[in-house]
């Protein structure tokens, strides 16, 4: 598991619509964990939070920060609503 994987996850979710659609289809935390393994993007919740904070500190514009917060909320919905 790594922070780098969490960063890659967020960038893929932001830039790749088919990746995002795959996330929307997940049903349960176990499916999400399997998705992480298949995509080679394993990371913990704490690593996700650290990656988010790192990327947030790099935002130069409000729009970038808004997009990042939207990705965080998507992740939280997947995790919170699938446990």
Question: What does it look like?
Answer:
The chain has helices at residues 3-15, 17-24, 29-38, 45-58, 62-80. It has 83 residues and is mainly alpha-helical. The protein has one domain. Helix 1 (3-15) packs across helix 2 (17-24). The longest helix is centred in the last third of the chain and has 19 residues, at 62-80. The two termini are 20 Å apart.
Task: Supply database-style keywords.
single chain; 83 residues; 77% helix; 5 helices; Nif11 domain-containing protein; mainly alpha; 0% strand
Layout of helices and strands, plus pairs?
Layout: H1 3-15, H2 17-24, H3 29-38, H4 45-58, H5 62-80
Helix pairs in contact: 1-2, 1-4
Q: How would a textbook summarize the main sheet?
A: none
Number of domains: 1
The ordered string of helix (H) and strand (E) elements is HHHHH
Low-confidence stretches: none
Q: Bin the helical content.
A: over 70%
Protein name: Nif11 domain-containing protein
Organism: Labilibaculum manganireducens
Summarize the structure.
The chain has 5 helices and no strands. The protein is mainly alpha-helical and 83 residues long.
């Amino acid at each position: 598991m790594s922070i780098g994987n969490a960063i890659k996850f967020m960038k893929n979710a932001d830039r790749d619509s088919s990746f995002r659609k795959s996330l929307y289809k997940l049903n349960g935390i176990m499916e999400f964990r399997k998705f992480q393994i298949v995509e080679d993007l394993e990371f913990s919740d704490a690593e996700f939070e650290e990656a988010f904070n790192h990327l947030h500190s790099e935002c130069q514009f409000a729009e970038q920060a808004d997009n990042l917060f939207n990705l965080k909320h998507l992740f939280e919905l997947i995790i919170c609503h699938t446990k």
